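Input (structure):
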């Protein structure tokens, strides 16, 4: 699918991957609603886009996990630009590390990393079926295909996000609904370094696991990979190509892969 003349909503668009996606979409001729829990950040990204391409973006503060907030974003897009063609469920959180994560920690991670995608799809897919087309892009993580050392909340919810995107693709892929799932490893965003900054043993391990597993990409590189995949309507978007080989190793011999991951974890923080 070409993004030119399409209307898009990008959640978590106030910076990082979301901000880069919004910029690349506008550069490709799309109209973009930039949404973020941090309204000032969303407005700043939209202003930056409009400085180069006037009238291409509008910013809004929104909780991407809240159904009413998602509906308001859809209404905003329709009033400013027209019916929504593309939805980027990009907002995410790292979550609390280890088994010490509380019920509220789990609820928040599930809401932001999974239910936000489900709630958006529930609002948009029926409209897209009537129109005969639409594109849903889910930002998950390589952790959703492999795992995340240190953070159970992140690993579990990202696995679930991959599973939901996969289900959407299977269920509606022959009815005009396109679905892609983004699964990067390390990207140079604030989210990547939250574990290291926390000082928690498992949090530190989580950051070191990602930064030592491969190149840390810039958000703009990831955004380019997303638009290239959308052009080809590919489901799995892997900005780090080695993730596919890692995933194959996991499937080929699960127990061997698990042993290898335990060794990897031990090497990150010896004695921990």
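Output (sequence):
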């Amino acid at each position: 699918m070409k993004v030119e003349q399409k209307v898009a909503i990008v959640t978590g668009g106030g910076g990082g991957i979301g901000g880069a996606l919004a910029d690349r979409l506008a550069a490709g001729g799309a109209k973009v609603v930039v949404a973020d829990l941090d309204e000032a950040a969303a407005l700043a990204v939209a202003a930056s886009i409009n400085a180069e391409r006037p009238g291409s973006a509008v910013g809004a503060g929104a909780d991407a996990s809240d159904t009413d907030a998602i509906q308001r974003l859809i209404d905003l897009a329709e009033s400013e630009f027209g019916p929504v063609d593309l939805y980027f469920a990009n907002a995410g959180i790292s979550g609390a590390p280890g088994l010490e994560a509380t019920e509220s920690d789990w609820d928040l991670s599930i809401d932001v990393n999974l239910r936000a995608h489900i709630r958006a799809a529930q609002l948009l897919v029926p409209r897209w079926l009537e129109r005969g087309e639409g594109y849903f892009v889910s930002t998950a993580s390589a952790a959703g295909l492999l795992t995340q050392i240190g953070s159970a909340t992140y690993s579990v919810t990202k696995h679930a996000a991959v599973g939901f995107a996969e289900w959407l693709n299977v269920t509606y892929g022959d009815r005009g609904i396109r679905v892609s799932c983004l699964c990067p490893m390390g990207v140079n965003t604030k989210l990547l370094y939250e574990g290291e900054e926390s000082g928690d043993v498992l949090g530190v391990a989580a950051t070191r696991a990602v930064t030592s597993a491969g190149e840390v990409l810039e958000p703009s590189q990831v955004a380019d990979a997303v638009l290239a995949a959308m052009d080809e309507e590919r489901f799995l978007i892997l900005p780090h190509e080695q993730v596919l080989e890692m995933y194959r190793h996991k499937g080929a011999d699960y127990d061997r892969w698990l042993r290898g991951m335990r060794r990897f974890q031990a090497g990150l923080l010896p004695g921990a």
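Notes: Residues 7-267 form a domain with the Rossmann fold fold (CATH 3.40.50.720). The longest helix spans residues 103-131.
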